[in-house]
């Protein structure tokens, strides 16, 4: 059973998210939160698998809460309208496991939660394109990836790992990556983990931006 904390300050939106997740097989909403402080407390209290986190909330915003939770090993899936402001880029530095848009379909929301719970991380292709476009166009604030990837770290990547990083940069899941490269899904997951470790990155989102910065994505 995947246990989720839903953090969203708008009651109507939060109720809809809870209803969708609670009705999905294998997923249980462990707690609800109306702000970042409640989200952190609920995650610690329930020992949940992940937090579905809104960005702009009172008292403590979703980015500050994400930073706290990421340091304790709790995965956070950011829920945003994605207007490419400093809040969204702040989530990269904070170590978010992925991004969702608030107009996401119910089935896609459920699948995204399952993907993150499997430890894969998740970036919606539309989000990936907007993120990469912002970085390529110079719109991203300095340090949004949490610092540039050192050249010596990049040099440690094998040719296969560079291919894997390029696929992550396109927003491919482990399953899609495996199909693309003709490898098994567990092997794809292992490759992604090694790439993140070698480049000292905390999430697939940061890896996607690194791929753009290194010129590995179309």
Automatic annotation (TrEMBL):
The keyword Cell cycle does not apply. GO terms for molecular function: DNA binding. Keywords: DNA-binding, Phosphoprotein, Transcription, Transcription regulation. PROSITE patterns: HTH_LUXR_2, RESPONSE_REGULATORY. Pfam families: GerE (PF00196), Response_reg (PF00072). Residues 150-215 form the HTH luxR-type domain. InterPro entries: CheY-like_superfamily (IPR011006), NreC/VraR/RcsB-like_REC (IPR058245), Sig_transdc_resp-reg_C-effctor (IPR016032), Sig_transdc_resp-reg_receiver (IPR001789), Tscrpt_reg_LuxR_C (IPR000792), WalR-like (IPR039420). Residues 3-117 form the Response regulatory domain. The modification 4-aspartylphosphate is found at residue 54. One of its GO terms (biological process) is regulation of DNA-templated transcription. It comes from the Bacteria. The keyword ATP-binding does not apply. This is Transcriptional regulatory protein DegU. It comes from Streptomonospora litoralis. The gene is degU8.
């Amino acid at each position: 059973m995947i246990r989720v904390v839903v953090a969203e300050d708008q009651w109507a939106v939060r109720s809809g998210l809870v209803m969708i997740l609670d009705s999905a097989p294998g997923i249980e909403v462990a707690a609800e939160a109306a702000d970042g402080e409640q989200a952190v407390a609920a995650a610690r209290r329930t020992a949940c698998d992940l937090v579905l986190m809104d960005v702009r909330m009172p008292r403590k915003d979703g980015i500050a809460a994400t930073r706290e939770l990421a340091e304790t090993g709790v995965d956070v899936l950011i829920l945003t309208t994605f207007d490419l402001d400093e809040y969204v880029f702040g989530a990269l530095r904070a170590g978010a496991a992925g991004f969702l848009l608030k107009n996401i379909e119910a089935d896609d929301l459920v699948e995204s939660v399952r993907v993150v719970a499997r430890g894969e991380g998740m970036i919606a292709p539309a989000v990936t394109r907007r993120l990469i476009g912002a970085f390529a166009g110079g719109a991203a604030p300095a340090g949004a990836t949490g610092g540039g990837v050192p050249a010596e770290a990049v040099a440690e990547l094998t040719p296969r790992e560079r291919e894997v990083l390029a696929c992550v940069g396109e927003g491919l899941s482990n399953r899609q990556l495996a199909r693309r490269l003709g490898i098994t899904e567990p092997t794809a997951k292992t490759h992604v983990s090694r790439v993140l470790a070698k480049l000292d990155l905390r999430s697939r989102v940061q890896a996607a931006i690194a791929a753009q910065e290194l010129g590995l994505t179309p």
